[in-house]
Structure formats: C-alpha cells, structure tokens
Amino acid sequence: MSLDRTFARIVTHHRLALGLAVVAMLIAALLTIRFRVHFASDVLDLLPQQFEAVKAFKVFDREFSQARELTIGLLDETGQVDLDAFSEHFSEKLREEPWIARVMDRSPLESPGGLEAARALALPLLLNLDTPDFDQALHAVAPDEIAARLKKLHGELEAGSPKAEFQLDFDPLGLVAPALKPLGSSFSIEQTRPLASPDGTLRIVLAKTKQTDLGAKTCQEIMDKVEDFKKRVLADWSGPAPKILVTGRTPYVGELSRTMGSDVISTVVGSVVLVTAVFLLGFRRIRPLFSIMVVLALCCVIAVALGALVFRELNMITIGLCSILIGLGVDFGMMLYAVYERERETGGDHEAAIAAAIRSQGKGVFFGSLTTAAAFLCFLRSQSTGFEQLGVLIAFGILCAGLFMATVFFGFIGGKFRVKGADWLWTGGAHFVRFVHRSPRAFFLCFAALLCGCAVFAFLPIGRVQFDANPRSLEPKDSRAGIALRTIQSKMPIAAEPVIVLLRSANAEQFHDGWAKLQASWTNLVAEKKIRSAASPAALAISPARLSANAARLQSIDFAASRTALTNTITAEGLSADAFKPAFATLDSLKAIAHGDRQRARLGARRCPRDSTWWFRARSLLFARSKSRRPLTSHQITRSPPSRKRSSFGKRSSPRQVPVLISGLELHPAGPRAVVRRASSPSSPSSWWSSMSFSCFSFIVALSRFSFSCLASRFPSLRS
Amino acid sequence: MRTALALCFLLLTLSLRAADLTAPETQALLKNLQEHRAKYPSLSADFVEERTSHLLNKPISSEGNIAFQVPNKFRREVIGKSPSITVSNGQKLWIYYPNFKEAELYTLGQKAFFDDSIAALTAGLNFQRVDQYYSVKAAHEDHGYRLFLTPRGSGLRRMVKELTVWVDDEYKIDRSETILPKGDRIVTIYKNQRPTPLSPGTFDFTPPADAHISQPLGK
Questions:
Q1: Are A542 and A179 contacting, i.e. CB atoms less than 8 angstroms apart?
Q2: How many whole angstroms separate alpha carbon A589 and alpha carbon A586?
Q3: Which end of chain A has the least Cβ crowding within 10 Å, N or C?
C-alpha cells in the first residue's frame, strides 16, 4: 500500500489511536516545559557569544551584586520640590521595606554608621600597606608618639579645632588615616555632592534588593513592590513631589519580560486573526480552520518542549516562533485542504480525498518543511544564543507542522463534508491560469517590468535605511527603565556607561597584584588626561603575603608599653577613657595579630554591617567573593573622555601580564552606537559581526534551500 | 495649704516666663529678627563659652569676641591659654592656632555637607533662610524670646542635634546653646553687643609665614 493510502487509512479508521497519541505527545511536551524550561529575557543573549566583551558583560551582569541593585532617580525640573528632604524621606521609607537589603543616598562616610564601619575596615587595610608605608604608620604606636599626638590634639581641641576633634574621636592613634589612604586613589570622587546632578535637579538613591534569583518572575515581583512603594511614599509626602525614575537590571528584566509576554500574545493573536480572515475568505469553513489552529498550537508546544531538551534555558524572544510558525505552517494546511476539498466536491469519499491530498501535496509539504527547517537551522551559525534557539525551535516546529498537517489535521476535520455550490476563488484562479496560459509573454513582460521598477526604486537615493547594531536598540522604545537610565545619564555625565574590566586571577595574591598594576596604570592615564577617571577595588584586594609579612613585623612592637602610654596620656590630659575604647581595641587587635590571630585581619562581612553603604563601594570585591562562583573575579569601572576612541583603550590601559576582559556599552553624544569590543581585538565591533553574519547567513540559507529543491526535483527519479 | 499656694504661684510664674508662640507668631518673630538684622547688618560682641565634650572629663571654658556681617562673613577670636582665630569671608574659612602655629583652610563650595553646615550655623546668627535648615519653635520669656531650632536635613542633624537661641526684646542675641549628636554641648553667652559697621579687612586673614597650613577637605 502506498504511503498516501496508509496515512489516509490510519487517519480514517484509527482516529481514537491517533487522538490518544496526540494527547500523549501533548502531555509529555507540557510536562517537559513545566519541569525543564527556564525562560530568560536577557537582551545579552541576542549578542554574539564568541566575543569576550559579551562574555565579560554577561558575567558582570549576572554574577555581581549590582544585578540586584536598583538605581533610583528623583527628578524635579520644576524647582518646586525640596529634593534633599524628599530624598531623605524616600530613603528612610525604603530602608524599612522588607525586600530591601540596603540603601545608599549619600557617600559612605556621611551615612549613619559610616565612620564606625570605616574604622572597622582600617585594620585589615593597615596590614595590606606596602612595607615602607606600614613601617611609617607603625611609628604612631610608639609610646612617645601616642603621648605627643594626644597632647597636641587636646590642645587644638581646647582652641576649638574641628579637625583635632575629629581626629581625637575617629583616629586617636593616627593609624586609621594611613590605612584608608589607598581607598582615596581607588575611588573616583568628581563632585562635591556625588549622588546629585550638577544642576541640582536630580538625586540618586541606590538600593540593593533581597531578591533570591535573577529570573524574570522574581524581577517582576520586585518591580510590583517598587511600584507599590512609590505610591505609598508619595502618599506619605506632603507638598510637591519629584518624578521617581527606577532603572537597573531588575527593572529592565521585569519590564522586558512583561513586554515580551504581551508582545507574544499580541503577535500570535494578530497572526491568528489574519490567517483566519484569509482562510475564511478562501474556504468559508470553520472546522478545518479550527483544526489547523489546533495542529499549529500542538506544533508550538512540541517545538518548545524539544527546544527545552536541547537547551538548558530558552530566551523569551524564542517564543516569537509561535507567530512565525502560524504564518509558515498554515500554508501546509491550506494546500492540503484545498486538494481535499476539491476531491470531496467532485464526489470522493473522506479516505480517498485524504489520500489524494497527500499524494498531490505531500511531497511539497515534506520538502517545504525540510527546506524551511534547514534555512532556520542556519541561525546556528549566528553565535547569538537567542537566534540559535529561535532557529532550532522554528525548525522543530515546521517539521512537526509538515508531519501533523498530513496526518493529525485530517483526523481533526472529520468525515462530514458540506458541498458548496460555487467557489469564486477556484473560478477566479482558473481564469487567471487560463490568462497566463493564453498570453505567457505578455504576462512575463508585465511582471518583469513591475519587478524591475521595484528594484530601481530600491537603489534610488530616496530615503535611508539605517542598520543599527547598538544592543540598546533591542529594548522597547517606551521602556520606563530605559527612559530612566537615559535621563539619569543625561543629567549626570558621571553616570555614563563605563568601560568594565574583569580581572581573572587564580588566587588572592594574583588578584591583589593584578589590581595593583591596573590601578597604577590607570592612575597614570588619568594624570595624562587620557581617561577621565578610574575606580577599582585595588585598595580592598588583600595580599596574603603582605599580610603575613606585616603581621611578622608587629612582633617587634611592645604593645603593652603603647597601652600604658595611652592610658597615662588619657589620664594626664583629662580625656575620657570611655571615648578612647576603640583605640585600646585597636592596640589589642594588633597585638593579637602579632601573636598569630589572623581572623582579626580578615576583610569580610563581620567587619561591616550588612546594611552599610560601604558595601556599595566595596561590592566589586567583597560581594563577588561571597556570591560568585568565580571567587577572584572582580570588576573595574572607568570612563574615557567621549572625544577619544575606545578602540585602543585595552592596549593603553592594561599591563600586558594582567589577564583582563574589557566590556561595556556606551551611548555616544553623536547617537547610539555599539562599542562592545573584544579585548584581544578591539577593532571588532558588533556592527562588523552583524554585517558579516548576515551575509554568511543569507548565503547558507540560499545554498541549503537550493540543495533541498534539487533533491526534491530528483526525488521521483530516485524512487523509481 | 501653704504648699499648694506655693505650687500654684510657681506654675503661674513658669507660665508667665515661657509662653509658646503659635506658628504665625513665630513667623512674625522671625520676620522681625530678619528685619532687625537687615537694619543692623553687622555686629560685634564679646562672648563666654563653655563646651562639654564626650572626649573630655571636664568642660572647656573660653572667652573672646566675635564679629559678624550678613550674609556669611564672620571673625571669631578666642583668647586665653588656648587661643584661636576663625575667619570666614564667605569663600574661605581659616582657623589659626597661634600656640601651635598651625592653620586650617576650608574652601567653601568644595564639599556640600560643609557648605550646608556653615550656612546652617550662620542662619542661627542672621536668621536668613533659617526655615530652610531648621524647624523653628519659639517662646516668649522674660525680657525676650527663646527660639528652639531643630535641623531639618539628616546631613545637618549629624552635626547639630538642637540649637536654642535666646534674644532679648530688642532682638539682640543673649545666649545660644547647641547640643551635638554625641551629647556634646556648647553654651555661648554674648555681651557688649555693638551693631557698628565693620571694616572689610575684619574678614580677611593671612596666616603668619611660619604657620603650617593644612586643608582638611583637600585642595
């Protein structure tokens, strides 16, 4: 029995078995989707993954603490709002939210508890000083030095010196200031008010959320809480209020995932409506239309399930396959049903009509699905995760569509058939074919002239096609997170997209050495005005070797004598012993470290409360160690003047022996352009990748479709 | 019976001594103070100050004189065994310690928190923009008024917890009491106030050539 008759027989006489098979497939697919698929809405998945710049940006985006940070802009361009007071009100209320870990609305030293936290950080940083600086700092604990310093500061305090009062209170021994000195060169302070715009119309508040994961659902939940908080905080405020802008990874993912979800629904609904309209226009039948839609839905579900088996994670953009699949798959159904209908109109029974449809169109459907699948599989060449997934899913979907339209579809339409009296489409088609057959030359010339006209118009210098390779163009135009980011960047030049440097290192010593070299290199570049500023965690990168060497040097110091000198001076000068407890504690800690207690020299969470704003400063090092699986990876943010080309940044900024990855995005003043570059080949922008990939992709699609077309034309002879 | 009468008399006396002003009355008082300062834009006075610090077991007492000119120029000289000179011309603030031959230079406009602090502290002297920095409550007392100022912003609250200023019926400042966040307290009593014009040179300062100059806020 031929294949078409076999298919027709199964569909006609084994409908129950066919239905059960479909249900089984559907259940298996749904279970696979439920338990295996994890949807991501990361725009970075759409960028070429082979570039180190993209890899680095992904690591930075996902594994560092700012992935959970909200950047909040409080904007008032009317001049009516007391922005300082509102910022304070906003931050206080935000700190009370259970989903917020910490808030930064001013520099760490100005924040509540900031000075105490700085003093706690000082001890490990003191032991991290290089030998000359450490020796010089240690002079301060000599008994004579302690007595002289306290006596002098007391005298200045009596004369009314605020500086002396601060030093007596914060750093009576004179050890904290030299220990914290490297922080000054590591962090960039360009403004008198670092979290406010120069024109005073914008205040920035940074907040770290307690979100457990970075998935789209969690981001949406956090953003729901943000929106609710905004309403409450504005309700609690009397008087004019500023606009509250929120941006960051969480707002972007929350918003994009929601937008993608609604986009998918709207495009699928649009496709269904259009296809329905066309089908009804041509066939004026409901049941086959419903059957086609059911089959296409089945194809979509199975394609996603198969995709989930191939990929660990699917980008939301791949769900765009549904509307593409409806557009492509409906052709197969209509081709087969047109023949089926014609057979039934001429008196054929259900089984014979199915066999005739498969015999007539089956080969076309099979090779059509095969060539289309092959064409979409060419997306595997794109090296963009999102497009790879989209290509594979559509390939699976279209192959399923080819198979199911020739089988399951006929099972759904059933054996009942209503004969139509007249078919204007069929009649019109017959007239058109007769016309073409009667005057083929005239027909060819007319259409050739029309197509030539179109081609000429395409090459005429009318209008302009802009090929935009900026990844930012992938975000929706009216994205609130995007608008917030652009507003903040326009108000605060310092907030412009920085170049991000990730350092790869095998151990803490390499980590320290790498950052020290990079920081030295960047300090020179800033001095030469080749880059505007640089901020790194160099000062917080503890060198185990230095720590051991400096701890050994402490053994030669008589801390008991220092303690006695401190006690005697406090008594002699009439100072309050209670106020100098931290100084005694510092001497005791140094003594303990000298005797081998290295725990006191560790730079970790114990030294700084979890809600301290110092974490925002130190996040590049401290958080990376506590959260990332790559414990010694960190980041550097720096900025170059807009007038200078970024292409040579990698060469100029990084010493050769330091293994770094450089990444970042920037919106140029002249307009958006991508500057995602490969560290080893800085002249490889994403625009080059996109144009080359497009050419390559087009060539492969043409080649594959041509090959399968040749195969299709040779198929009968091969069979014979 | 005698005790009850004494208590009633005491309460009556207290109520007469300190009657809280309503908000409009407070605003009217502030307006009068601002007008008085506009009428007499410069003044000089002698002062006696006692400072209680959490760093010291005993309070520090000092005395000296102060000259002030709206909006933000002032010169404050402390005499005695720990002398100092503090001079601000509105752009630069010098503090010089003759005993140590050391001078501190603070440039206004470098750090917002410092500028805000100076503006807020001078607001307690000239009563201009006092509403911007403080919540003000006032009370009428014997021979004058008491103004109780609470900082509005958290930045200023970290430096000053409360500021109370007593003025007499002629709107001259009698006394001020500043409570600092760690419990420190500064009580200043002003005497011999002279609303006389001051020469521009009063607010200029050049440290001696042998003085060591530091800039705590950076250059």
A1: no
A2: 5
A3: C
Interchain CB distance below 8 Å, A159 and B97: yes
Residue with tokens 């930075």: A60
Is B203 among the domain residues? yes
* Confidence band, pLDDT 50/70/90 cuts, at residue A649: low
Burial A125-151 (b: 16+ CB within 10 A, else e): bbbbbeeebbeebbebbebebbbebbe
> Is B38 domain-assigned?
yes
Q: Angle A114-127/A544-554 helices, nearest 10 degrees?
A: 90
Instruction: Answer whether residue B194 is part of any domain.
Output: yes
| Ordered alpha helix ranges (H), A171-248 | 176-186, 216-235
Is B5 inside any structural domain? no
* Tokens of residue A433, six digits: 């074919």
**Within 10 A of A495 (CB to CB), how many other CB atoms are there?**
18
Among the candidates A663, A691, A710, a domain finishes at A663
Tokens of A275: 């296809």
| Token pair in block for residue B11 | 């309460």
| CATH number of the domain bearing residue B85 | 2.50.20.10
Q: Which of B53, B58, B86, B154 to mutate to test the interface with A (most CBs of A within 10 A)?
A: B154
* B-chain residues near A95 (CB < 8 A): none
Give burial (CB, 10 Å; 0-12/13-18/19+) of A249: buried
**What is the value of pTM for the model shown?**
0.66
Residue A635, strand partner residues: A502
Q: What is the pLDDT of residues B162-205, one digit of tens each?
A: 889 999 888 888 899 999 888 899 999 999 888 888 887 888 89
Query: What's the ipTM?
Result: 0.84
Q: What are B's interface residues with A at a Cβ cutoff of 8 A?
A: 53-58, 60, 62, 78, 81-84, 86, 95, 97, 99-100, 102, 104, 109-113, 115, 152-155, 158, 182, 214, 216
Element holding B73 (H helix, E strand)? strand B73-79
A354: Cα within 13 Å, side-chain hemisphere: 27
Phi and psi at residue A34, to the nearest 5°: -65, -45
**Which CATH number does the domain housing residue A390 bear?**
1.20.1640.10
Which residue segment(s) compose the domain that B183 sits in?
Answer: 20-214
Query: What's chain A's average pLDDT?
Result: 78
**Tokens matching residue A291:** 């059957």
To the nearest whole Å, the CA of A87 is away from the closest chain B CA by: 10
At residue A212, the pLDDT reads: 82
Q: Which of A354-363, A514-523, A622-631, A702-711 has the lowest mean pLDDT?
A: A622-631
Give CA separation, B52 vs A468, B122, B187, in Å.
67, 21, 9
**CA A101/CA A527 separation, integer angstroms:** 37
Write the single-letter amino acid at A504: R
Q: Are residues A426 and A327 in the same domain?
A: yes
Task: State the CB neighbour count (10 A cutoff) for residue A384.
Answer: 25
pLDDT of the residue at B33: 86
User: How far is CA A383 from each of CA A386, A686, A690, A691, rounded to the nearest angstrom?
Assistant: 9, 12, 10, 13
pLDDT tens digits for A81-117?
888 888 888 988 999 999 998 888 877 666 666 777 7
Listed in sequence order, the residues at least 6 apart from A329 whose beta carbon sits closer than 8 Å to its beta carbon are A292, A295, A296, A299, A397, A398, A401, A405
State the residue range of the domain holding A444: 3-28+269-456
> Which of B47, B48, B50, B55 to mutate to test binding with chain A, by most A CBs within 10 Å of its CB?
B55
Kindly tell me if the per-residue pLDDT of A224 is higher than 90. Answer: yes
Structure tokens at B67: 């000259």
Verify that A437 and A318 share a domain, yes or no: yes
Query: Which distant-in-sequence residues (6+ apart) come within 8 Å of A212 by Cβ?
Result: A218
Same domain, A316 and A367: yes
- Letter for the amino acid at A160? G
